[in-house]
Structures are given as C-alpha cells and as structure tokens.
Amino acid sequence: MKTKSILACLLILFATQAVNAQNNAESLLRLMIDQIKSHKNLEMDFSYQISPDGKNFSEAENGQAWLQGEAYRIEMANQQTISDGKTIWSYLIEDEEVMVSNATDGIDNTPLKILTSLDESYVATLTGLDPNGIATIELANPKGQYKRVTLKVNAKKSELKNADIYMDDGSKVSVTVKEMKFDQELGEKFFTFDEKKHPNADVIDMR
Fold this sequence. Notes:
Elements: H1 2-37, E1 42-51, E2 61-68, E3 71-75, E4 79-83, E5 87-92, E6 97-102, H2 111-116, E7 123-129, E8 134-140, E9 146-154, E10 159-167, E11 172-182, E12 202-205
Parallel strand pairs: 6-12
Antiparallel strand pairs: 1-2, 1-11, 2-3, 3-4, 4-5, 5-6, 7-8, 8-9, 9-10, 10-11
C-alpha cells in the first residue's frame, strides 16, 4: 500500500510538471508573438539547411523573410514565397514558374507563419532550458502540414533563435535566425508578386 501511495505521488508530481512545462511553453510563445505583433513589421535574416532523410543536411544557405500582419515574403536561393494575406505566390526561380493559390488553403504553409498562426491544434511543450536562457519548445500538430517543430527561443528576450521542422515524409528543414529588424519601410507592392518584372515566368493559377 505504501508503494502504491509513493507511486501515486510521483505520478501526480510528474503530471504537474508536465502541465507547467506546457503552460510555460505556451506563455513564452505568446510573449514572442505579441512582441512581433507590437511592431509594424519584422525583417529576418536567416540560414537554412535541408535534409531529405532527416540526418544528412545540405550546405547552409542564406535567406530573408518579412512579416507584416497577415502578409509575408520569404526569399531563398531558388524560391520566393510571397503573400498579401489573401493570395500566395510561390515562385520557382530556376524553373521560371509561379504557382498562385489562396492563403486560406493552408494556415501553416511556411515556417514563419507557424509563429503567428498558433491555435488549439498545436500542443507546445517546454523540454529544456540551458544556462544561457535558451528554451527548447516542442510543437506538435497531428493535423498540420508539419509532423512536429522544435524551437530554440531566447527566454530573456522572447526571440526565436532556431527552428527544426520535421515533415511527414521523414525530411527535415533547419532554420537559424541570424538577425531580426523591426519597423522597416517597405513599398506598397512589397507583398505581391510583380509579373512585369518576370515576363518569362509561367503563371499557374491553382485557385
């Protein structure tokens, strides 16, 4: 009987710690999101690596991303993804091909959008905190495009440092934030794809 009581106490203690870890993770993410939303826009310089098998990574390449409200723009070596909040333009640079779709077709269609589109389908759990104040947060969403996401967040500044995105097919994308800037002056058409600048691009409307 005594053993059962001790076991029960340990289970209760573990359950309490698990709930606190989840609440702390969600609170930290909300602080990070609120900080981003408190500014007019966000500009982010990052590097990224891709692993088809989840183990062997490609060489790191640089990219840039901008977020303003529901609009965003992501520029990588061979692809640009632009959205004004209603329409998404996915431009494959080498193929000179633009795929046009509705923004509502997928709420988590880019790693950047995950940060500002957290809903009840995502479960956030704090799994670690190192001496430098870098928190590790696991995001899981069985119904989402991504199997799971591991975030490294500066808990003191509520800033994202790294994101590892795991796909259902076993592949993985690792993104490391190099610099963040806020309240940049962006042009009126910055979050739309300018077909005039790409006259040879084949536009495929998937709406």
